[in-house]
Write a structure and sequence with these properties.
eight-stranded antiparallel sheet, 8 helices, 28% strand, alpha+beta, Rossmann fold
């Protein structure tokens, strides 16, 4: 047993999921999960006096981290179950659960979403192995509190905000409105009524929301990373012209041409829908393309957007992709209040 990994799992269960003695804790893993991480959480649950139950399943359709943006195709198969019934019933019966997998299509399983919005407290570690968990998950109560407090402050500004402006040295000049859709909280600590549709994704550290329909206007320059056709760090910026909430032109170098051709080949109008304004708040997340998807978009001070599906975020659009896109050194204001300046959160 890796003692560092055990202590990390124990802290997550105690401080983030509030696991108490005599509770039932399900550790649910698909067949891509790191056995060391599964064992660490199961052992930590037992050490806390809880009753751990470990169960595994085979995903209906596994989408690797390399192309994880394609998971959104599941949004177009409305109502299709993604979890086997025994695994679902185990989650429903548990007081708390830890999910360790690479199966993001769970976000479109209505039965799973019902459980996530019910009483079961769920922490989700998509695509993480033991090494990534040690690097990205909190190592102390101070880190837990700092991440929670920072994320909550940003979340309140977004929850009460309306007018958003985003600029960057690369040429971004974008205006949009927010407030019509839910705010997705990822503060690290499970709180009723918050989280990501009822569950907490680890590594945590992001506030996101869907822009009001047809309000985004201007130029968006993505110069850090994109997650389709593959999850990668960009060499050259990609310039998007945005009109009434939709991308009307994609320009730039070779990578822009490749992305433009990819979107065109999908032959679906909603892949050009601009969605998910996100702000990263986790100082332990550092590099694009390492332990995504969460590490990339949760990086401290990172402003991100997406194209395509957003029903899993509280929107209404279904599409074959959800294209996360991150920026370097962006600045963001909400109702004239500066939250991010040059890629740094304003204290």
């Amino acid at each position: 047993m890796n003692q560092l990994l055990f202590r990390c799992a124990a802290l997550c269960l105690e401080a983030c999921l509030h696991v108490r003695p005599d509770e039932q804790v399900v550790v649910l893993a698909d067949d891509t999960a790191d056995p060391a991480l599964v064992k660490a959480f199961a052992t930590a649950a037992a050490a806390a006096g809880a009753e751990p139950v470990v169960t595994s399943y085979r995903p209906v359709r596994f989408v690797s981290m390399h192309i994880f943006g394609h998971f959104a195709a599941g949004s177009m198969a409305d109502g299709t179950p993604r979890l086997p019934r025994p695994a679902l019933e185990a989650l429903r019966a548990a007081d708390a659960a830890v999910i360790i997998n690479g199966d993001l299509e769970l976000l479109f399983d209505p039965r799973f979403l019902e459980v996530a919005k019910a009483e079961t407290r769920i922490g989700w570690l998509p695509y993480l192995d033991g090494d990534a968990a040690l690097r990205l998950l909190p190592g102390s109560m101070d880190e837990v509190r700092e991440l929670h407090d920072t994320t909550s402050r940003i979340g309140e500004a977004i929850r009460t905000g309306h007018e958003v402006a985003v600029t960057s040295p690369a040429g971004t000049d974008l205006r949009l409105q927010i407030g019509d859709r839910r705010v997705n909280w990822s503060s690290g600590i499970h709180e009723d009524g918050k989280g990501f549709g009822g569950l907490e994704i680890w590594p945590s550290g992001q506030i996101s929301t869907v822009p009001n329909q047809a309000t985004a206007e201007g130029t968006l320059v993505i110069d850090r990373s994109v997650n389709v056709p593959e999850f990668k760090e960009l060499l050259d910026p990609i310039v998007f012209t945005v009109e009434a909430g939709r991308v009307t032109d994609v320009s730039g170098g070779v990578e822009a041409a490749r992305l433009g051709a990819f979107l065109e080949d999908l032959d679906h109008p909603d892949v050009y829908h601009l969605t998910e304004l996100g702000l990263g708040t986790n100082r332990k997340c550092t590099a694009a393309g390492r332990a995504g998807p969460a590490e990339d978009t949760h990086t401290l001070g990172c402003v991100s957007f997406a194209l395509g599906a957003d029903v899993h975020l509280g929107g209404t659009v279904r599409a074959p992709i959800h294209l996360d896109m991150t920026m370097r050194q962006a600045s963001l204001t909400v109702d004239g209040r500066r939250l991010v300046e040059g890629g740094r959160l304003i204290p």
